[in-house]
Specification:
It is built from 13 helices and no strands. With 296 residues, it is mainly α.
């Protein structure tokens, strides 16, 4: 056996199970899903028939699909903005130095250890939209504090229900964003801060002109992570509201099409749309990361 082959063969054998698993369960299933999406199989017994991708156009004629896209975009906007702002604010407070920082970090990161299903069950009770005489959770708290004007229908609001649905996700992921930003804050060399202070910059100007510009890669990473989580949100919405039309999102639409309506073509089409949406976020980031690494 040639020496060159002997050098790379052990490594190849070591990673081959992972390569096979990824090839089969990731790219193999992506291929199978795409094949179903361009088929005319709208039931589970019809033979496979290539349909030239008409499903991608016909899907927009279904009354529930445009609403699902609207709900996903609203959820994404509120969730990403809320988690970024809250996480950055918490990291800013941590960077300023507070007593018991380690304890606060644990408290802020703890929600991330809870699954979306578990937090959804809790927040379903907290955001219970029952009328005042049967109010529980946050509405009951508002009533006891004589802040009844703040009580609302939460996720049952037909216009802003998905914005309320983003609150549990913000609570759960803001600690993770805080950890990202805190690492970014602590990664800024102290010499840069001291040089700005020597030049007469106030503490706010030090952060604004020295620290914050260094956090752009952190912000981009957080945007990508939060964006792909929000686009494929399923378990949180299902735990709180189930399959109700006012909180219908693409991932739930996939579930309904495949398991309730037994329409594999439509379900695969929605899943492909989700894959493309996530790819639009992730691929430019990967390209940027590779180029940034090469220029170092």
């Amino acid at each position: 056996m040639p020496r060159r082959v002997r050098n790379w063969l052990p490594g190849l054998l070591l990673v081959s199970p992972s390569i096979l698993a990824v090839g089969l369960f990731v790219y193999g299933l992506i291929f199978w899903n795409t094949r179903e999406a361009v088929s005319g199989r709208h039931d589970e017994i019809s033979p496979y028939r290539f349909d030239k991708g008409r499903n991608f156009v016909d899907l927009w004629d279904q009354p529930s699909w445009p609403g699902a896209v609207k709900h996903a975009l609203l959820f994404t906007a509120v969730f990403v903005a809320g988690a970024l702002l809250l996480g950055a604010f918490l990291a800013f407070l941590m960077d300023k130095g507070i007593r018991g920082e380690a304890s606060f970090r644990v408290v802020y990161l703890f929600p991330m250890a809870v699954s979306f299903i578990a937090s959804g069950v809790v927040w379903r009770w907290l955001m219970n939209p029952a009328p005042p005489e049967r109010a529980v959770g946050l509405n009951q708290l508002f009533g006891e504090l004589h802040l009844g004007a703040l009580a609302n229908g939460w996720w049952q609001d037909p216009e802003w229900g998905m914005a309320a649905m983003a609150l549990p996700a913000i609570w759960q992921m803001s600690g993770y964003v805080m950890a990202l930003y805190l690492a970014g804050f602590r990664g800024v060399p102290e010499e840069l801060r001291e040089a700005a202070r020597v030049d007469g910059a106030s503490e706010w100007k030090v952060y604004r002109h020295v620290v914050f510009p260094q956090l752009r890669p952190v912000t981009l990473s957080a945007l990508i992570i939060l964006g792909h989580i929000s686009l494929k949100v399923f378990d949180l919405v299902m735990a709180i509201a189930g399959k109700q039309i006012i909180t219908y999102v693409p991932a739930i639409a996939t579930y309904v099409e495949v398991l309730d309506r037994h329409d594999p073509a439509n379900g695969a089409t929605i899943a492909t749309y989700l894959l493309l949406a996530v790819a639009l976020l992730v691929i430019p980031y990967l390209v940027w990361s590779v180029r940034a690494e090469r220029t170092r």
